[in-house]
Specification:
The chain is an alpha+beta fold. Helix content is about 35%, strand content about 25%. It has twelve helices and 20 strands. The strands form six sheets. Strands 1, 2, 3, 4, 10 and 11 form a six-stranded mixed beta sheet that branches. The chain has a five-stranded mixed beta sheet with strand order 14-13-12-19-20, with helices on both faces. A hairpin with a 3-residue loop joins strand 1 and strand 2. Helix 4 crosses helix 12 and helix 5 crosses helix 9. The protein is globular. The termini are far apart.
Amino acid sequence: MTSLARSIGIDFGTTNSVVALGGVDGEARMVDYPGPDNTGSIFRSALCFWEDHGVSGGVAREAGPWAIAEFLEFPQGSRFLQSFKSVAASRAFEHATIFDKRLRFEELGHVFLERLRAHAADALKDLPSRIIVGRPVRYAGQRPDSALACRRYELMFAALEREIHYVYEPLGAAFSFASRLAEPATLLVADFGGGTSDFSVVRIEAPGTLRRCTPLGSAGIGIAGDRFDYRIMDKLVLPMLGKGGTYASMGKTLEIPPGHFADFGDWARLALMHNRRTLAELEKLKRAANDPAAIDRMIAVVENELGYPLYDAVGRLKRTLSAEERAHFHFDSSGVRVEADVSRADFESWIAPDLARIGATVDVALDRAGISAGAIDHVFLTGGSSLIPAVRRLFEERFAASHIASGNELTSIAHGLALIGQEASIAEWTASSEDEIEQG
């Protein structure tokens, strides 16, 4: 079947990844993954490693939903990494320590791509010559190094041994949305991923026009679903792990530095805390802390690889609050127990500063496109966090509610990237760093 594919679109996401095949018929279809939870076209951006002397190198590996299944079956003997895309632009990240091996970002990416292809069976066995990979308008993290992230992407996707083109993720979604339209329009795409929120304004011409879509302007910011998750962690979980507490030093009582909790704001960095140096520092802090039990709970989170179950509990709360006014948060594992009733109003107050900065970034995208909010005919919201009512309300306050559309929140980018890959020339769609904005 892949012999009919002219292009492949890869949406390598912070939380989920999706692949689409562009066919000779001008259409695009998703690659399905019949995983342990029957996830369809959604392939979780997760990796799991475990020692196995029966395989080459002594370390077995899995990715996607299979990685999660392996981890849940044997958490104490596994190293589990999720959202590793979020460290792509981090100069502080050099490698992940996996048992006695050190793996750079691109080496983690090679494992991920190898397993993603393997689980697609014949669909990705023979790759077409052109592969379109989505990238954020702005990478996640404090002071992200876009040039470094691009080099790491190039090294990662070089493993596919094909012609690789990089396109801003919201432009992929715009191309997908254009396939729905029968009339010319000006479109704003708002793509809410796990690590970044990206916005692009695109002019769409009538079907049959030689140049159907023209990008007008883009902007992005490193605030999205993972930041919303951290707000929940910060309010409900971190106080149980010592945040806000004190420790004794040279006869003085000092507040525990917030840096000890910074890695809890990024699920990938939380997984990387499982190393001898960090655990030794936490043991030293526990001996000096006025509430050593709290630091003991933090050590339990790191040692017992509780990042995934914490992530899962936080995600369930967030999804429930998107549908209901109140929800109950429950987490109980390895001596760490948190119970709390949370209202949607509580959650919205926690993320209000983030929403304000997201709104300002939308305005930057409009300014770069040289148009006003009133000139936008359609607003397409995509990505998991677009389902949060407060996020949708942000756009309803700026644009007519009748102009706002959604759907295919997790697959539209890959679908559009595969369609872009069928264009005669895609140079006008390829990404650069000039549209990024600084995150303070």
